[in-house]
Amino acid sequence: MHDSLAYPYPTYVPNKVVAGCFAVIVSISLITWFIQSWQVRFRPPRLSIILLISNLCIFTELIVHSVTPAAQHNTKNIFLVANILFATSQRMLIVSNYLFIREIHREKSIRSRAILAGTVLCVITSGILLAPANMLSFNPDRRNASFLFRKLSALVLLAVTLFFYLVWYWSKTMKDMTRRAFILITISSVLCVLAASFNLIQSIPAYYDKINSHEAWFYVFQIAPIVCAHCTWSIFHPKRSIQPAVPLISTTGDETSI
Fold first, then answer.
1. What is the CATH number of the domain that holds 165?
2. Does residue 117 lie in a domain region?
3. Which residues pair with 249 in a beta bridge?
4. How crowded is residue 241: how many other Cβ atoms within 10 Å of its Cβ?
5. Domain ranges, residue 126
6. How far apart are CA 142 and CA 2, in angstroms?
7. Is-contact 203 153, C-beta < 8 A?
8. Would residue 156 count as lying in a domain?
9. 8 preceded by cis ω (within 30°)?
10. How many domains does the chain have?
11. Is 3 inside any structural domain?
12. 91 and 157 in contact (C-beta within 8 Å)?
């Protein structure tokens, strides 16, 4: 049995300045994403809204880390809120990769819908498995079960992030991609794999203690990949990286291209 008395809490003292700096970066990315999405009336709609929510979740998590007093940081409520916010942001980002490929492919077949539905189902399943992992972690007698659920959740999530590359290959969208689209989806997908791989490593009891004893692990392999992915989405917004099948209409009534 995992005998760490600190589990599931980290043993380091959180650095509010670092959390605040990351929050500022995310806020810039969030505002940039919102403005650009507004300019094209949030088209494509699902991709625009999902990434907006993902941005908001990671921003809120960083704000929680930056304003929570050190004495209250290792409490059940803060732990659960931070985990839910990060898990939501990460999973929405993964789904966005699939949506992006679908927007380029523009295929509305049953196969395309099935792949997207399967992706969403796997992402939700991963989140559901994470719930008992977090709740059982507060019971010293159920820590082994907690790690089991945590590992299953991480495995499902990593499988979804890796399966994306098969979908990308099967869709044969490479030739239809602009250079910006290729850069965007490559960076975003690789960073998602990095974060998901870290989640899996963190679900191993022997590594959980080591990772949660140094804050650098948290920011370098968990927060930074998600933040960098969002910044990449804001820089290569779909209005510039996707070639539209039909022209978009600006708020002034003029045609504008993505």
1. 1.20.1070
2. yes
3. 255
4. 22
5. 16-256
6. 10
7. yes
8. yes
9. yes
10. 1
11. no
12. yes
Amino acid in the structure at residue 70? A
Query: Please, what is the end-to-end C-alpha distance for the chain in angstroms?
Result: 55
Amino acid identity at 139: N
User: Residue holding tokens 């403005």?
Assistant: 35
Show pLDDT as tens, one digit a residue, over the chain (258 residues). Answer: 344 457 888 888 889 999 999 999 999 999 999 999 999 999 899 999 999 999 999 999 999 999 999 888 889 999 999 999 999 999 999 999 999 998 887 766 788 889 999 999 999 999 999 999 999 999 988 999 999 999 999 999 999 999 999 999 998 888 889 999 999 999 999 999 999 999 999 999 989 988 988 999 999 999 999 999 999 999 999 998 987 654 444 444 444 333
The amino acid that residue 84 corresponds to is I
pTM to 2 decimals?
0.89
Rounded distance between C-alpha atoms, residue 68 and residue 128, angstroms: 26
Helix (H, G, I), strand (E, B) or coil at 7: coil
Tokens of 131: 């719930």
User: Residue 255: which H helix or E strand, with range?
Assistant: strand 255-256
- Beta carbons of 180 and 233 less than 8 angstroms apart: no
Is residue 9 included in any domain, yes or no?
no
